[in-house]
Amino acid sequence: MARTGRRQKPKQHLIEEWTGKIFTSLCIVFLVVTIFSIVYFVATKGLSTFLKDGISFAEIFGSKEWKPDGEPPLFGALPFIIGSFSTSLLAALISAPLGICAALFMIEIMPKIGRKYLQPVIELLAGIPSVVYGFVGLSVVVPFYRDVFPGQGLGIAAGATVLSIMILPTITSIATDALAALPSGLKEGSYALGATRWQTLYRTVLPTTLPALMTGVVLGMARAFGEALAVQMVIGNAPHIPGSLFESTSTLTSVITLSMGNTVMGTMQNNVLWTLALILMMMTFVFVFVVRWLEGRANR
Amino acid sequence: MSAKTADKIATAVIVTLAGFIVLILAGLLGFILVRGLGHISFDFLTSPPETIKEGGGIGPQLFNSLFLLVLTLLITIPLGLGAGIYMSEYAKPGKVTDFIRLIVEVLSSFPSIVVGLFGLLVFVNVFGFGFSLFSGALALTVFNLPLMVRITEQGLNSVPIAQKEASLALGLSKWKTIRSIMLPIAMPIILTGTILAAGRVFGEAAALLFTAGMSSPRLDFTDWNPFSPMSPLNPFRPAETLAVHIWKINSEGLAPDAPEIAAGASAVLIITVLAFNLLARWLGRVMHKKFTATK
């Protein structure tokens, strides 16, 4: 009895070993297949606008006229590209100083209060769903802008305001990690030379952590660029380039959100929407590339 | 200006901005709760929505959100755990591993609407699942997988190496070591992360517009046969979730009390997400105490 039991041991051992290996490898294969199929499907659909429907590159990227139902239909996506870039850039510009100040507060100025109150607050901001941000934007931010500035209140300014709060957690948490990882000798050296706290922060800490801080800002911008529903609710959705920050406009994501359900798969109108999705995807790659480059600089 | 004055001004500015952030969150939560809580009642939580009349509820939407959450976790957890274990324990440093890391990174930064469109094309049309809870769950899986992988990896990496080596030295297979020694130790981190991810799933809408659909059939809550089209348990029926519902009534709501419904539904969503957050924190603390023997 004991002998046979011992002889079977190695075999069971091997079976266990292989189940684990095969199961986990399959999960990884699934992951890889998923991402390649996303790229493949979005790219083939998005490129058929140029290859099958014969719409020129210049029209999509250069023309300001968006009339998908017109005769002939016009597909200039420039207003959406401008809308997407301006809202996400503006959001990053508002959010970056706030997020970095919050991180400085938590790490350098009042670590105890910061960790106890500010950090949970920012984590909660990250958990609030985007439609709720959209709803609050629609019922607070837009009426406020409408009363204070000329125009309808809907537009880039409202979109950027809502987005800046949404991306605040991303920027703050990365900035906090970067500041916390800084070797303390650097700061002590500066203090030993008689520098004040602000001189130390401004001349030593911020320049050293700059690439990491930028990583956070770029990741935040990437998030803002891809956000769909919150922006769609407050941007106004007019297909033209606005004259001011408080005029209605559109972004790539808001056009896709609103129009995808109203077009038939395979038609020209539908393919153009996939081209917009392809632009979104390509921008994701650009953002990831920039983040990797910044991380490389931060680790040097 | 002397260096001392500059230091004081800078400190004041930083403290003010940090306070400003706390005020924003307090204002946000306060606004949503004050506007929404008054509208929440048992009737609101259980009755079906009305399209043009006043007094609609969010019953089916709430149920759909919870059901979709369960479905998504059923698919995401095994896949994410597996891929995370592979990355932490089996992957050897090198080109292939770097590449997989890059893939996880890219996947986690894809806009959710792109994942939704992919779901529309592949799950809804090519595989023919139609606008259904199942398509929605698959899209959310794609969307959540990188997060789950990262959480698992982080959890496993936190296990003391001596514990792993001790198990291997006793002659246990690597898989057995991972499963019965390492995973239980990593469990607090993994569980906390999963609950936070669940909170995100609950509020996600963009990926669901094109996969789970924007409408709910009339549900018959007495029919628990998962194969009948009216049954709430049927995973192959279209389903509008709470987050999608909020978006829809804000952009095209026809009911006269649409703003109130949006406020009430937002409050329900926020309260649920907050509950997930608190649960994750509490569970993390409790399990940490239990496993690390600190009293």
From TrEMBL, chain A:
Any single GO BP term? phosphate ion transport
Listed Pfam families? BPD_transp_1
**According to its UniProt record, where is this protein mainly located?**
membrane
How this chain sits in the membrane, per its record, is: Multi-pass membrane protein
User: In the UniProt record, does the keyword Transmembrane occur?
Assistant: yes
Q: What Gene Ontology cellular component terms go with this record?
A: plasma membrane
Annotated Gene Ontology MF terms? phosphate transmembrane transporter activity
Write the record's keywords in alphabetical order, separated by commas. Answer: Cell membrane, Membrane, Phosphate transport, Transmembrane, Transmembrane helix, Transport
Chain segments annotated as transmembrane: 21-43, 80-109, 121-144, 156-180, 201-222, 272-294
Cellular localisation: Cell membrane
Q: Which SUPFAM superfamilies match?
A: MetI-like (SSF161098)
Start and end of every ABC transmembrane type-1 domain? 81-291
Which InterPro entries does the UniProt entry name for this protein? MetI-like, MetI-like_sf, Phosphate_PstC, Phosphate_Transport_Permease
What NCBIfam families does this protein's entry cite? phosphate_pstC
Q: Which PANTHER family match?
A: ABC TRANSPORTER PERMEASE PROTEIN YQGH-RELATED, PHOSPHATE TRANSPORT SYSTEM PERMEASE PROTEIN PST
This chain's function reads: Part of the binding-protein-dependent transport system for phosphate; probably responsible for the translocation of the substrate across the membrane.
Tell me the protein family, please: Belongs to the binding-protein-dependent transport system permease family. CysTW subfamily.
Full protein name: Phosphate transport system permease protein
TrEMBL record, chain B:
Where is the protein localized?
Answer: Cell membrane
Give the way it sits in the membrane: Multi-pass membrane protein
Q: Name one GO cellular component term.
A: plasma membrane
- Report the CDD domains cross-referenced here: TM_PBP2
A Pfam family reported for this protein in Swiss-Prot or TrEMBL: BPD_transp_1
Quote the InterPro entries the UniProt record gives: MetI-like, MetI-like_sf, Phosphate_PstA
- List the SUPFAM superfamilies hit by this protein, alphabetically: MetI-like
Name recorded for this polypeptide: Phosphate transport system permease protein PstA
